[in-house]
Amino acid sequence: MSSSKEVTVRNKTKAIGAIGLGSVAAGALLIGAFVAVAKGNTSAAFVGTPIGGFLFYVCWLVGWRATIRLRPEGIVIENCIVRLMVPWRLGRQFVVSSGIKLRLLDGRMLSPWAFQGSLGAQLNGYSAFKPIRDRLQEESDKIVLSAPVGAASAEYRWRLQLPDLWIPLTFIGVSEAVVALAYLLS
Questions:
Q1: What's the CA gap between 11 and 66, in Å, rounded?
Q2: Using CA atoms, how far apart are residues 178 and 18, in angstroms rounded to an integer?
Q3: Which of 22, 44, 80, 118 could form a disulfide with 56 if both were Cys (CB 3.0 to 4.6 A apart)?
Q4: Mean pLDDT for the chain?
């Protein structure tokens, strides 16, 4: 893997599970909307689809959005709607302690949502997390050694953001159009 580019690490099992759950919930609400149209209750049909879109978006945020990104300027931890930018000079030690955490030089521990611990992982000694931690550490070292000099001037940033709002809006728009079509055809 090239060390000059961004390295993105996400918990694929968690991502697939969360997106699958969101898809099932949204699909169930869409099916409910069709049943409501068939029974003549159009108000319930048009309310259920936006709720399904919102549920899918929340599951996508929790599952797919939660990542650790290693960039030339530092480590980006994306936790649902919170994004942390940690420059390399503040620390880059990844540890396995109730999940994978980033230990800063001042002693603070940052917890990416992508790799939170669970009872099953704890009983297994977090064995699945150790190779991920090792990969993060190895890629971090590569990036730091090859990073341009100016990249060290990045600052620690914390911000709230609602990423990719096109996802729920598209889902809701398509769902509403399908329900409207079902209503017109009934």
A1: 8
A2: 24
A3: 22
A4: 84
**Which has more pLDDT, 4 or 181?**
181
93 backbone dihedrals φ, ψ, rounded to 5°: -95, 115
What phi, psi does 22 have (nearest 5°)?
-65, -40
CA dihedral sign of residues 97, 99, 102, 108: negative
Give the pair of three-digit tokens for residue 63: 């599952």
What's the pLDDT at 153?
66
- pLDDT, one tens digit per residue, over 86-104 is 999 898 899 998 889 999 9
Tokens of 100: 């994978």
DSSP the chain: --TTS-EEEE-HHHHHHHHHHHHHHHHHHHHHHHHHHHTT-HHHHHHHHHHHHHHHHHHHIIIII-EEEEETTEEEEEETTEEEEEEGGG--EEEESSBEEEE-TTS-EE--GGGB--HHHHHTTTTTHHHHHHHHHHHHHHHHHHS-GGGGG---EEEE----THHHHHHHHHHHHHHHHHHHH-
CA atoms within 13 A on the CB side of 183: 16
